[in-house]
Amino acid sequence: MTTVDPAEFTRTMAHVPTPVTIVTTVDVAGRRWGFTASSFSSLSLDPPLILVCPAKTASCHGAFVSARRFLVNVLASDQREIAGTFARSGGDKFGGSPMVPCESGLPGLPAATARLACALHEVLDGGDHSILVGRVESVFLSGAEPLIYHNRRFTQPTAGSALAASS
Q: 164 in a domain, yes or no?
């Protein structure tokens, strides 16, 4: 079996553009949790399933693997600052943020490109991450330009790019 160098794998994957999301939930004690994720994807149409992958080392990991519901906020191109806030560990991520109760009463961003409210369908092992499979219960779409993570930075599709042409 060939071993892939972790640094080379990281450099390679940095060139794969992904949407930037903030995933939120509320635990049984009413505490809000959230993290920025670029590891997000649709999984199934029937039933409608998505997946998102929090790091097992994240302080919010336990809250998400035991959550009944979570909300995926697909960020708009002008939401870089909040993406950075939710990417950092510790601190009050929700203090001063534009998060308000949205679908299923979960913290959401009214100006997000899209929101997907999910019931936790399954938790799978994904190495140093967990794979949360969410059964989509409701969606919201604003049509705003998305925020993209590509080559280790936040960006947005530009006119004439492959990303813009596919939207």
A: no
Please check whether residue 20 lies inside any domain of the structure.
Answer: yes
**Domain, as residue range, for 57:** 6-150
Name every residue whose Cβ is closer than 8 Å to that of residue 53 and which is 6 or more positions away in sequence: 37, 39, 40, 126, 129, 130, 131, 132
Alpha-carbon span 100 to 15, nearest angstrom: 33
Pick from 57, 135, 121: nearest CA to 90: 57
d(CA 14, CA 139): 28
The predicted model scores a pTM of 0.86
Whether residue 107 lies inside any domain: the answer is: yes
- Bridge partners of 37, per DSSP, are 21
CATH of the domain at 134: 2.30.110.10
Number of domains the chain is built from: 1
The string of pLDDT tens digits covering residues 61-107 is 999 999 999 999 999 999 999 999 999 887 789 988 899 999 989 99
Write down how long the chain is.
167
pLDDT in tens, 117-130: 999 999 999 999 99
Q: Please check whether residue 158 lies inside any domain of the structure.
A: no
Which two tokens mark 135?
A: 């059964």
| Positive or negative torsion for Cα 55, 61, 67, 71 | negative
